[in-house]
Specification:
- It is a single chain.
- This protein has 213 residues and is mainly alpha-helical.
- It has one domain (21-210).
- The chain has 10 helices and no strands.
- The longest helix is centred in the last third of the chain and has 26 residues, at 185-210.
- The mean pLDDT is 90.
């Protein structure tokens, strides 16, 4: 078969891709992720009873900023990786900066604390359950974000899967902040990050299967 014939055969029946497809798909999946995580959080764990007081403190918004910034960076990465040949670019510093800030704050807290207070600052009261709680809340978003990505054209499937999993888990962590009583960056730097990395790792493993097109 000549090259011209092959090109003609491959192009037969091709229709233009509708503009704004990515925006439409993620415009559906992101509200599902947020509403699903929030509903699960309220039903399974409950909103913390002192929320009205805590939201008036700077530390609560600092806690919320960590997963929120990661969600923004992961969204940029996920959308870009859903297109063939694109690079993540600005998403990396958006995701890395809040993590670095929290780690610096955590190290400062641990170093300056009395020796007997260092481990409790890291473990808090819920270290055993925190990562798995976030993993649970990430399930609706995981399904919705992978649905959005599969309908596009990702080529780096493991990296796209990891970004999709991180997007789902960071959205879930935003919702979890309204339940979680832990207010120390030393806790967030370990256990929030572990909770967000679990779905990201799962996404990397399942990406070649779930995002294949």
């Amino acid at each position: 078969m000549r090259t011209d014939d092959l090109v003609g055969l491959l192009s037969t029946g091709i229709t233009p891709v509708r503009r704004g497809t990515a925006a439409r798909r993620f415009g559906i999946s992101l509200p599902i992720a947020m509403l699903g995580a929030t509903a699960l959080m309220a039903a399974v764990f409950g909103v913390r009873p002192d929320l009205a007081v805590v939201v008036k403190t700077p530390i609560f918004w600092e806690k919320l900023a960590l997963p929120l910034c990661l969600a923004i960076g992961a969204l940029i990465a996920t959308v870009r990786l859903a297109r063939p040949g694109t690079k993540v670019k600005a998403a990396w510093p958006i995701m890395a900066t809040p993590v670095l800030v929290v780690w610096i704050a955590a190290i400062t807290i641990v170093v300056t604390a009395a020796p007997e207070e260092r481990l409790p600052a890291i473990l808090g009261h819920s270290w055993r359950s925190c990562p798995f709680n976030i993993l649970l809340l990430a399930i609706p978003g995981f399904i919705a974000v992978f649905w959005a990505g599969k309908g596009l054209a990702p080529t780096r499937l493991r990296l796209a899967g990891a970004a999709s999993g991180l997007l789902a888990s960071s959205i879930a962590t935003v919702a979890y902040c309204f339940h979680c009583p832990e207010m120390s960056p030393a806790f967030w730097s370990v256990w929030y990050m572990a909770g967000m990395l679990l779905p990201a790792a799962l996404g990397a493993v399942l990406g070649p299967t779930l995002l294949r097109w």
